Amino acid sequence: MLRIAVLVSGGGTNLQALIDAQKAGKLGGGEITGVISNKPGVYALERAANAGISSRVVCKKDFSSAQAYDKALADAVSETGAELVVLAGFLSILGSEFLSRFDGRILNIHPSLIPSFCGMGYYGLKVHEAVLERGVKVTGATVHFVSEIPDGGPIVYQKSVDVNDDDTPETLQKRVMENAEWIILPRAVAAFCEGRLKIVDGKVRIKA
Ligand code: GRF
């Protein structure tokens, strides 16, 4: 059974998708052993409590430097015993200590088809606002390994979603979550837990 720590910052709908997949036996034998939020009072913490998963809050403002915060975040993950870290709507940038301690074992869900609409400044609703502003007809979501380049790590899965003429950022976000994020994130975690994800020459190879 592979232990998983999930990092959150908000509503936790992607966390919920992972919790539901675990309950349904569709997480590749993985078990969520801890939820860590960078903000108190977010609904993702309620979701963890309702599922009987331990959680804690690690706030940047409680630390004297970005490095101290990064180390505290990495220590909090280590205390869960996690062998896989999943960023599920997590909005803090991870520092070099965290990235080196969990190198090759951090997955992130991003609400666009990377390399479009990603990188610094593209998060949450801002992504969908930019999609509608540019007028693209297809968007979607991406699960990727996390590297030192924001949203720049090897891509694991992508799933497309059509953009409707009458979409607002909110309606588009909801459809991308329902039809893409909540499907490909559990699928990627399951593949990792089953040892089917390999990185060859910087590209992800997935065994069926
Ligand atoms: C989602 O769109 C996710 O892709 C992005 O943050 C948003 C909120 O996610 N990273 P959640 O509902 O907190 O899982």
Key features?
single chain; 208 residues; alpha/beta; seven-stranded mixed beta sheet; 6 helices; globular; binds 5-O-phosphono-beta-D-ribofuranosylamine
Detailed description of the structure:
The chain has 208 residues and is α/β, with parallel strands linked by helices. Helix content is 36%, strand content 24%. The strands form two sheets. Strands 3-2-1-4-5-6-7 form a seven-stranded mixed β-sheet, with helices on both faces. The protein has a two-stranded antiparallel ribbon with strand order 8-9. The two termini are 20 Å apart. 5-O-phosphono-beta-D-ribofuranosylamine binds next to helix 1 and helix 6.
Structural class by SSE content: alpha/beta
Strand content: 15-25%
Strand element count: 9
Identify the bound ligands: 5-O-phosphono-beta-D-ribofuranosylamine
Number of helices: 6
Principal-axis shape equals globular
Main beta sheet: strand number and arrangement? Answer: 7 strands, mixed
SSE topology string = EHEHEHEHEHEEHEE
- Poorly predicted regions are none
How many angstroms separate the termini? 20 Å
Strand order of the largest sheet: 3-2-1-4-5-6-7
Instruction: Report the average pLDDT across residues.
Output: 97
> What helical percentage do the residues reach?
25-40%
Report Rg: 16 Å
